[in-house]
Amino acid sequence: MPYPHIIFDLDHTLWDFEANAEQVLNQLYNEYLKELNIERSDFMNIYRANNHHLWQQYHEHKITKHELKARRFPDTLTQLGLKLADLDFDIHKLEHHFIERSVEMDAVFPHCHRVLDALAKSSRLHIMTNGFVEAQHRKMKSAKIDHYFEHIFISEEIGANKPSSKIFEFALAALDCTANDCLMVGDNLVADVGGAKDIGMDQVWFNPDSLDKPATIQPSFEIKCLSELLDINH
């Protein structure tokens, strides 16, 4: 029996953050860092590690959106051994260009459009994201997936990040349904799976890289490819 509602995370679940970010980071490296004797791979790897760490802190309300955006590039360049005061460009340009260019990228995970087409025939589809409000709608439009979704629940607008029960309760009220009517699909075991589980909602852990699953969190379902959702929602 299909779920009446399927709620998707966006980044790392439908919109391929890593693929899109890599394109933009390569552009920024070529424009700003190539002549500074910084290895491209070092820049990419350190940025990814910093970005992941800062997003985890943001999910946990340990830092603000402003702090995340203000730190990820300066922290990266500092760890690469650069003195920010000696740079001949404004470090804040990196963050500005990263956001503005990223939202124009259109890479999604394999089978994304086909799966959304099929699911939309039997279920109402929605987005729930901790991403920044100024970026998420533009990402979906660039990737040509915005038309699939009825409701877009953005934590920044609601005032609560996943995994807080507040954002899930807000969604249930907006959809006028119960947790049993919904399926949450996301890549983050804490924010997506844990948050949905805590409110009694079934969850799908999207795990394309076959990461090890900790014993502390057991999702309702685990998939490596979005196409597997069609076997779950039938």
Automatic annotation (TrEMBL):
InterPro entries: HAD-like_sf, HAD-SF_hydro_IA, HAD-SF_hydro_IA_YjjG/PynA, HAD_sf, PGP-like_dom2, Pyrimidine_5'-ntase_YjjG
Family annotation (SUPFAM superfamilies): HAD-like
Gene Ontology molecular function terms on file: 5'-nucleotidase activity
Superkingdom of the source species: Bacteria
Entry-linked Pfam families: Hydrolase
Gene3D superfamilies in the record: HAD superfamily/HAD-like, Putative phosphatase, domain 2
Protein name as catalogued: Noncanonical pyrimidine nucleotidase, YjjG family
Lineage: Bacteria, Pseudomonadati, Pseudomonadota, Gammaproteobacteria, Alteromonadales
